[in-house]
Structures are given as C-alpha cells and as structure tokens.
C-alpha cells in the first residue's frame, strides 16, 4: 500500500494508540484487506507492538489478512438465520462460486465469509454483500443476487 | 491506608486496593493459581483463584488475583461452591491438555481422578498468557502474543513467521507452567539453539548459550525452582 496514504490516515488519527482499530478500518477501506507491510509500517510509526496489532487483526472478524474479492459476501449463521436455513444458503453459495468459506474466487470478484449475527434477525436468513442486506434469502435466489453484482461491475 | 479484612475467619490488616491474593498470603491461606505470577500484573485468565466474598452484605464470586481489597470485606476460600467451580475448571483444562503433569498434580490434590469431558486433540498450552505477559512486561520486546479468539486462540508470533524482535532469552520456556515452549538445538548452526513454540520458531540465542545462567548448559531451571521454593517458604 502507498506509504503516503498510510501516513495520511495516521495523521488523521493523530498517531494515537487508542485509534488503532479506526486506523486499521481505514486501511482496510482502501485496500480491502490488511497488508502485512502496512501493518509493520504502522507498528513502527505508532511505536506500538506488532503483536498487539496482530492480536487485534485476528480478533475481529471484519479484518482480513488475506486479499479479498471485489465484493465480500457475508452469510449470517446466527440463531434466527440458522433456523431459516442459512446452512443451505451457504452450501449453495459454495457450489455456485466454487470456493470455501474464507476464500476468494479466481477472478477475485467475490470472497465468502460467515458471520454469527448481523443484527437484523427479523430479515432472516440474511446475506450481506458489501454494504447491502439481502433478506429472506433462499438457495434458489442466490444465483440471481450474484448475477446482479456481475452485471453491475461489467457496467463499471 | 491499611484496612482490616477477614479471610476464612482470620483477621488481616492490608493496604486498601491490594489484590485479595496478597492478603491471603499474609494470612497464610493458600489459593490455587495457574496464571498468577508475583513479577507480573494480574491477568485473571485461569479463574482458578476464585474466592467468595461478602461485601456490603452481598455475596459475590471474584478472582482473588485482581480483585481489590476493601475494608470490612469477608473472604472465603474453601466453600462447597468454590470447590465445584475449581473442579469444573480443572476438568475442562484436563480435557484440553490431557498430557500436562502439573495439571494432573493439581487434579490429584483436589481429588479429581479423570475429566468428565471428551478429550481434545492434545495441546499443552492452557492460554494462561504468562509467556506473553513476561515477554511484554519484564523482557520488554513483545515477541509473542495471543492471536485469534475462541477455540482458535493461541500463542504465536506476528504473522506466524519467525520473530525479528525475539532476543532468545528463554524466559518464556522458563515461565511456562506446562512446558509447551521448548528450546531445541539448531541443526544448521552448531551451538545455536532455537525456541520452539508449536510451529513457530523464535530467534536463536545471540550469546550462543554461553551465559552463566543458560537454561540448557547449567541446569538453570532446577536452580531457579529451588530459589523460588526457598523464597516462597520464607
């Protein structure tokens, strides 16, 4: 990642140790994941232990240390979604994309993740793609949802 | 300011705000611990030092290693409830680490023969965090840390590659209560030894293990154990 960009992020947060999560979120906002070099650079600049940063990066599910696809698919497997059939949705998702959880497709279009609750249990089963929530998802709807993202990126 | 508290019926005067375990030591009451060490800040990870207290006429369960003393507090260290809790903790730890002899010793003391839980794939780490805290607070390099969470939590170096800040002091091998961090001979360079922590190797010793107090050459562990035993007896 561009060092100037990292410096700008660090400056915005005034090089505060307490802002480490926000800094990492901003880095991930640009890069879609947390590159190792960038984390090492941040640790050096903030004079914060790399172990501490690595602990935080592995603790929170939203942070990823491996490159993600352009669109991140989060399949909710919380209680309400589980009862609504989240596991079938997940299986269908894996079959359609030919990837497992935590992986990205070969064309780095999608990456697939599971989460334990998205906080919208009334919409169960929920699938979140980037910032959009898709409610009452069933295996038959999945192809349609994914194709809308395919066509969207073609237009771009 | 010194305040009076009672531990198992014994009256002790101790500084307000000191952890309960200090007061217990003063009263000569032994509280079992796994993650507590005099040289480090209390962490409260193992929950084995759980005690029952009565404060403001309310009964509470707290960890003795980090709960501050208040005046008029009553502490009980050996009630039926506590014995149940400790038994549960030890049985869970035994299911996680079935091959650790120090855990078996504690279990034997408590009269636990076997764990009622299914044994897991053998690991020796109980996640007490002693090595991590020692590396951070005493050595001051933070070469190892706790990563991930839940069932995936483990002690590892950043990015799980050989550490570039480790000084090879061997403190983590000494402080580990279960002996899951080892120093092993380096096959490539004679006289050099590398610390193994699961899969991740830490740095070889820069002094080529020629120091007087080297754990491998001089039987440092045994000496230290004797010193600490003596210190505790006094």
What can you see in these coordinates?
The complex is a heterodimer of chains A (about 160) and B (about 230). Chain A contains 7 helices and 4 strands; from the N terminus they run ααααβααβββα. With about 160 residues, chain A is of the alpha+beta class. Chain A folds into 2 domains: about 5-60, no CATH class; about 70-155, Glutaredoxin. Chain A has a 4-stranded mixed β-sheet, with helices on one face. In chain A, α6 crosses α7. The longest helix of chain A has 17 residues, at about 140-155. The mean pLDDT of chain A is about 90. Chain B folds into 2 domains: about 1-80, Ubiquitin-like (UB roll) (Roll), CATH 3.10.20; about 130-234, no CATH class. Helices cover about 30% and strands about 20% of the residues of chain B. In chain B, a hairpin with a 2-residue loop joins β9 and β10 (about 200). Chain B has 7 helices and 10 strands. In chain B, about 30% of the residues are buried. The mean pLDDT of chain B is about 85. Chain B is α+β, with helices and mostly antiparallel strands and about 230 residues long.
